[in-house]
Amino acid sequence: MNIVKIICSLLLLCAVPFWAKAATPITTEMAEKYFSNCVSGAQKDGTMTAENQKRYCACTAMNMQKSMSQEDLSILSSPDKSIQRQSVNKILIDVNGPCMQYPIHDLINKKCMTDLKNEAICSCLSTRMGQFTKQQSQKMMPQILADNPEIFDPLTPIMESQEFQKTQQQIALYCATHPNQK
Q1: What CA–CA distance (Å, rounded) separates 109 from 104?
Q2: CA-CA distance, 134 to 101, in Å (whole number)?
Q3: What number of other Cβ atoms are within 10 A of residue 22's Cβ?
Q4: Mean pLDDT by 10 residues, the chain (182 residues)
Q5: What is residue 47's predicted lDDT score, i.e. its pLDDT?
Q6: Considering only CA atoms, which of 83, 75, 85, 104 is closest in space to residue 151?
Q7: What is the DSSP letter of 47?
Q8: Residue pair 30/68 in contact by the 8 Å Cβ criterion
Q9: Positions of E strands within 23-152
């Protein structure tokens, strides 16, 4: 999934000049432009359903406004790669992290339907794993970034983590025995 690379590119397009004043909030106009570009980029990526693409882009746009400044965005164009990386990590943790439930949900649902072809079980599993991801992804990100300091897309490391795998097994068992529970 290249959604995080798309986010960083889109945020760079919204970036203000490097000389902007400290702690300048992200404007509604910037967030709306980002949302528009994000939906377009997510459609090209094809990882998520159209509905979840919009949810994901709305979630990341809201988090961008809430947790970042225009200066954070301008750092993305800094020639200093270590400073640039700090901004990317902030995006991964504070902007993208709380929204990872949407691609996780759709990826798990797609794989489950391919493997099991059981809508009730797959819906239960993907919904519950999406909820788990929403609750845990920000907590998992610092360790994922420490283990993978150059990543732009944390989706695979999240899904391959022991915590995620163990939780997925537990939820899969639950959903197999309670398929109509979401």
Answers
A1: 8
A2: 5
A3: 7
A4: 52 45 86 94 84 96 95 91 93 95 97 96 97 95 94 94 97 92 72
A5: 84
A6: 85
A7: -
A8: no
A9: none
Q: pTM (2 decimals)?
A: 0.84
State the SS3 of 138-172: HHHHHHHHHHCCCCCCCHHHHHHCHHHHHHHHHHH
Look up tokens 């339907």; give the residue: 113
- The contacts of residue 159 (CB under 8 Å, 6+ apart) are 104, 107, 165
What pLDDT is stored for residue 20 in this prediction? 44
Tell me the HSE value of 52 on the side-chain side, using a 13 A CA sphere: 19
What's 69's DSSP letter?
Answer: B
Helices 50-67 and 3-14: crossing angle in degrees, nearest 10, is: 50
Integer Rg of the chain from CA: 17
Give me the torsion for CA of 67, 72, 77, 82, rounded to 10°.
-100
Residue recorded with tokens 């999406």: 130
Q: Which two tokens stand for residue 97?
A: 């992290």
Give the tokens for residue 147: 């283990």
